[in-house]
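Incident log, structure service

09:12 report received: a user says their structure output differs between two submissions of the same chain.
09:20 pulled the input from the user's history:
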Amino acid sequence: MSDPVTPRICLNMIVRNEAHIVREVLDAVARYITSWVIVDTGSEDGTQDVIRSHMAGLGIHGELHERPWRNFGHNRSEALTLAQGHGDYIWVMDADDTVVGTPDFSRLSADAYFMRIRESDNWTHWRAQLFRDGMRWRYVGVVHECAECEDPCVVDRLEGECYIESRGRGARGLDRLKTNERDRDLLLTEVERNPDDARSVALLAQTYFAVGDFVNARTWAARRAEMGGWDEEVYYSMCLVADCMWQLGEPWPHVEDVYLQAWEFRPTRAEPLYAIASRYRADQRYQLGHFFAQRAAAVPLPEGDMLLVAVDVYNWRALDEQAVCASGIGKHEESFTLCRRLLARSDIPDDDRTRIAANRDVVAPTMIDAAAPYPDTLADSLVAGPRDAEVTVSLIAGPDRATTEQTLNSFLRCCTDVSRVGRFLVLDAGLSAPDQAALLECYRFIEFSPCTRGDAPGAQLADLRGQIQGRFWLHLGQGWRFFAPERFISRLTAVLDAEPEVFQAGINFGDAQELTGACAAEDAVHRTADAGRYVVADVVAHGPAMFETGRLDQAGGIDATDHDPITELGRGAAAAGLHTATLDEVLCIAKLTSEESATARTDSDSWDLASSVGATATMAAASRALATELRFIDDPFAAPLVRAVGLDFVTRFVDGDIPNLDPQHTAQGMAVRTGFFDHFFSDATRGGIRQAVILASGLDTRAYRLPWPHGTVVYEVDMPEVIEFKTATLAGLGAQPKAALRIVAVDLRGDWPRALREAGFATDRPAAWIAEGLLVYLPPDTQDALFDHITALSAPGSRLATEFLPDPNVLLDQQSMELQERLRAAGFGLDFKELVFDGKRSNVVDYLAGHGWSVVSSRTVEQLLAEHGFTYPNDQSARPYADQRFVSAVLSA
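09:34 re-ran on a clean worker, output below:
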């Protein structure tokens, strides 16, 4: 059988003032065409000469005609007639189009072909673009014209991955508003001439929407829906009615009903379900958002539809909504899995990729906890392998057995192809004999190796290298915790197979040690079927990584005397022309993020929201969630934030699943505390203050939930890890600040005044400051310095609110310890006496009064509860806190 003969293709275009863009389309189609016929309808920018010169340079003969402009239908038909006789098929293109992919013209047989068109906003549709020569084709419509044939004809679709990208960068796209206004007027005239022209009615509705006239857009879209006919156009018009109602602010139940009618009319389309899910997510109604997003994501791409399909909704946006809403309702594993599924795609815009990576990390703590338990069945099934196994996994154990167990348990649970590991080699770096025996009892497949060359890092790695005979060596290091199910062995070996100049494949993108909310950008990524997404870099990985042992030796191997053997290895690799690769995500962490990481405070310690002082901020948010559930206050973000942190005790606390703790009294106490600071800000803004500073903001959401007056700027000051987590989580939930929010990511024990000023804080204008739940966790001198800085930064008339314990030692007395034991028994692992600083502190009321502040209010928590009709709990362990004081003050002139 002979190969098919590729038909002769004639390019056909109408152009006007396209000199700035036309060369791009000519280059895009040049390899496919044998001739061209282009009609210029009145260019004044030299388009005619540009086309003649460029096509001559490409060596393709053709004709340029000049004709007066009438309308799109007439001029496009005229151009098509002029192209007759110049090829077997006529290919119609616009000046701002380009071709993505490779169209297959080798087997053309139909009289016309529809080609896929992708708009810049990811909507796709199909349009007749390729016409057999000799057929009587003409275009109808004064704008957005479509082709009709006067002869019987066979029409097909040019399938495949290729599509035409309509970029909107031609002369019509230079001023899109004016273009749409002209189109509107043309279509109005056409509809008045022919009221039954369904296509013109549909286009008129779309054009009204494009110019922002949602009232008329709704009217004409409703009319098109009532006309019946082509079901795809009816469906789209029904959706447009709902879109207009949304834009016009009509009651949501009415809008939702119209979206559901559109979906009911054409249940093979997901756009209405997606729109409903987006609205519920934006309103923090995550249960309903999840319900509709999950159903939208289950609708497959309607391959047969021709008109305006939002491809990104089917490919990933519905899944994205589902992931966000799953996080909001505590389905963290589902959210994590969906985020990773999305990040593996190649069609996610980089801005969305960054957001999704941050969302993934929001729910990662749940996965970290899930990977911690001992995998007894799997551990029992593994056996020690030979010394020459192709893949050896190593780690360093000691002196703490628990850390080694965390690494082994999490790796075994997450490495889904662990069966490919032939040998587990553990270097003993100080384990006790009982601990080593206990590990061998639980993990019978591991093989211990002593440190024969000393305890230095170079000596340890050299000891391990000397015992590895296979090709691949995955070194897990010491103290790492894995949390993402992954084919680690298959992916890492595939990277090393695909990249002959890569000697090391790291697990974490950017060699991260903790959650970073980062993911590799698509343009930096390599990918293969087995390796997935990965990047190649020149910076050696210090974290868990796999070596190709032959290339490792080529890089100079490991010197037992090196204090920093990995860095030295990187230098040797660079000299040998070898590189490091990493996978595209962060899949394990070195830093603990659960209760067991709490340690005694120091003047320079740090924390996140799952450890140390940060966990108390999470506990406060949990109390706000409980108070919201009981309708004492309204903080719709508290519960989703707490669930995102993923601490088991605090999540159970929100769910009311902690015995021996009275949720009613806890909620009442937090309600009066929250109300005190909410009212403080309300009073301050009513007094004309337009700068608000929230010190140690933690999971505070006042910037997102209070009704701030126009022009108010809210500054949130806290540790970078805390700020980044909250901001990313709220962004993932679709929350929007109700004031101008400025983030100041800095430790309050550092130079935070400078950071605040650099963020735009105006020292010559009054400000409202709050320090809620903060003072007891500061060293005494830092507490004084905090108020000194506030005073120095504040203009007269500034206001300050805080709360404090006159005697912080009550946190360390017997009654407080009893409360602590109750919390510990329920699973809250923090020790409060380890969180506070010893030493005599200033009385806040006295200190402020002595530094220019007029104290206008000082009330105990017992008094605040009584003002709201609540009773302080009759509990001996709670009595010492009854004197906690809430203070507000104004800076004197």
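09:41 both user submissions now match this output. Likely a transient worker issue. Closing.
09:42 reviewer note: The chain has 31 helices and 30 strands. The two ends are 98 Å apart (CA to CA).
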